[in-house]
Automatic annotation (TrEMBL):
<dbReference type="GO" id="GO:0090071">
    <property type="term" value="P:negative regulation of ribosome biogenesis"/>
</dbReference>
<comment type="similarity">
    <text>Belongs to the Iojap/RsfS family.</text>
</comment>
<dbReference type="InterPro" id="IPR043519">
    <property type="entry name" value="NT_sf"/>
</dbReference>
<dbReference type="GO" id="GO:0042256">
    <property type="term" value="P:cytosolic ribosome assembly"/>
</dbReference>
<dbReference type="InterPro" id="IPR004394">
    <property type="entry name" value="Iojap/RsfS/C7orf30"/>
</dbReference>
<comment type="function">
    <text>Functions as a ribosomal silencing factor. Interacts with ribosomal protein uL14 (rplN), blocking formation of intersubunit bridge B8. Prevents association of the 30S and 50S ribosomal subunits and the formation of functional ribosomes, thus repressing translation.</text>
</comment>
<dbReference type="Pfam" id="PF02410">
    <property type="entry name" value="RsfS"/>
</dbReference>
<dbReference type="GO" id="GO:0043023">
    <property type="term" value="F:ribosomal large subunit binding"/>
</dbReference>
<comment type="subunit">
    <text>Interacts with ribosomal protein uL14 (rplN).</text>
</comment>
<keyword id="KW-0963">Cytoplasm</keyword>
<keyword id="KW-0678">Repressor</keyword>
<keyword id="KW-0810">Translation regulation</keyword>
<dbReference type="GO" id="GO:0017148">
    <property type="term" value="P:negative regulation of translation"/>
</dbReference>
<protein>
    <recommendedName>
        <fullName>Ribosomal silencing factor RsfS</fullName>
    </recommendedName>
</protein>
<dbReference type="GO" id="GO:0005737">
    <property type="term" value="C:cytoplasm"/>
</dbReference>
Amino acid sequence: MTVPETVLSELKTAAAAAADKLATNILSYDVGERLGITDAFLVCSAPSERQIAAICDEVELKLKEIHGSAPLRREGRDSGTWVLLDYGHMVIHIQHEQERAVYGLDRLYADVPKLELDLPEEENQV
């Protein structure tokens, strides 16, 4: 399955917004065939609760401004360690670095295709 161009465009916007707020290890996965309920995941990390909140705010703002998209569901904002933004066609995971290591989404989806986000290489590092 191929992620539609409209979804890929939104993923790139979300990834750039996350990078602007210094998110690290920004990756996107084509999970459509595996899950069937969404086309893609965007996963990124941050070292603090404050930075996670800033990334979340920026991602939501840019997706609304540029694409007119708003999340159908938002979870974890109060926990500060993992925010999930569900847009239906894509799900964005903003995780504390330790949470990301513990829950291992990257390991769970290691066998699905990664999507090119067109980020400068230094913004896509751990």
